[in-house]
Amino acid sequence: MTTKDLTFTVRPLDPLKDAELLHGWVTHPKSAFWMMQDARLEDVERAYMEIAADEHHHAFLGLHEGRPAFLMEKYDPAHRELAGLYEPEPGDVGMHFLVAPTDTPVHGFTRAVITAVMAFLFEDPATRRVVVEPDVRNTAVHALNAAVGFVPEREIRKPEKQALLSFCTREQFTKAVAA
Questions:
Q1: What are the CA-CA distances from residue 118 to residues 29, 45, 142 (Å)?
Q2: Is-contact 73 96, C-beta < 8 A?
Q3: Are 45 and 16 spatial neighbours (Cβ–Cβ below 8 Å)?
Q4: What is the 3-state secondary structure (H, E, C) of 78-100?
Q5: Phi/psi of residue 135, each to 5°?
Q6: Contacts of 144 (CB under 8 A, 6+ apart)
Q7: What is the chain's alpha carbon radius of gyration, rounded to the nearest angstrom?
Q8: What are 77-90's pLDDT values in tens digits?
Q9: pTM of the prediction?
Q10: What pLDDT, in 10s, does the model give residues 17-39?
Q11: Regarding predicted confidence, which is higher, 94 or 102?
């Protein structure tokens, strides 16, 4: 099996039912850039209950062969995360993703996940551009972002981090994954 053969499904996150699973993911040492290392189970439940109640922010659980494999958040950057930090355009969608930590990594799995995440976001015809703002120190995610067509624009200062503001249009994504 190659990573091109991987298929994923995505479902809305259930903040209460999925909190224990997420807690293990977001507090794992490999998830340091998620910035929830010291979170208690109740903190994770609360954070994702807030997202579930927010019309501008949505969380999803990605499954591989029916098993939880990644977390994805979709948000409106004009109202959350990047509000006031850049000039949003119609059709902009913000995104975060976290692949479940594992002791047995599969080469290319994370790239397959981000490709699936981007395909999911672009399934909505209203999505014209995906916006991300990873920590400037997160070189691994910068490489993954580039692999699916993201182009860095500039560094921005957020309250919790120095971030690399990057954009990917539908056309850039299509071209990157066809290569």
A1: 25, 26, 15
A2: yes
A3: yes
A4: CCCCCCCCCCCCCCEEEEEEEEC
A5: -55, 135
A6: 110, 111, 114
A7: 16
A8: 999 889 889 999 99
A9: 0.92
A10: 999 999 999 998 887 778 788 88
A11: 94
